[in-house]
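Tokens for chain A. Residues wanted.
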């Protein structure tokens, strides 16, 4: 993972250095003079950070849901074991009564 990050960082740096043509970036009434490389890379990196944040948030939500489902499953299994135990006791009692 770290190797992939380093490779991408180097590729981004090379892209920025190779694309130094000046350009004016405009958004609504805001204007900014920069080079083409930065005008492309900065939004890309911001998009990656926002996407990572959103997927991390969703992952945390899914982990919480999984923990809750596991807890409900354990409770249901315990209840099922208790029912089976009670059924076995009742069956044993019936067998003893029939033997008399």
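Reply:
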């Amino acid at each position: 993972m770290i190797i992939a990050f380093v490779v991408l960082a180097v590729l981004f740096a090379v892209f920025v250095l190779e694309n130094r043509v000046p350009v004016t970036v405009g958004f609504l009434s805001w204007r900014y003079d920069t080079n083409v490389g930065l005008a492309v890379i900065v939004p890309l990196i911001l998009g990656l950070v926002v996407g990572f944040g959103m997927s991390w948030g969703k992952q945390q939500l899914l982990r919480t849901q999984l923990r809750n489902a596991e807890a409900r499953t354990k409770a249901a299994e315990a209840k099922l074991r208790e029912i089976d135990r009670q059924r076995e006791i009742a069956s044993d009692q019936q067998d003893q009564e029939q033997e008399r």
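The first strand starts at residue 22 and ends at 27. Residues 67 and 73 are 10 Å apart (CA to CA).
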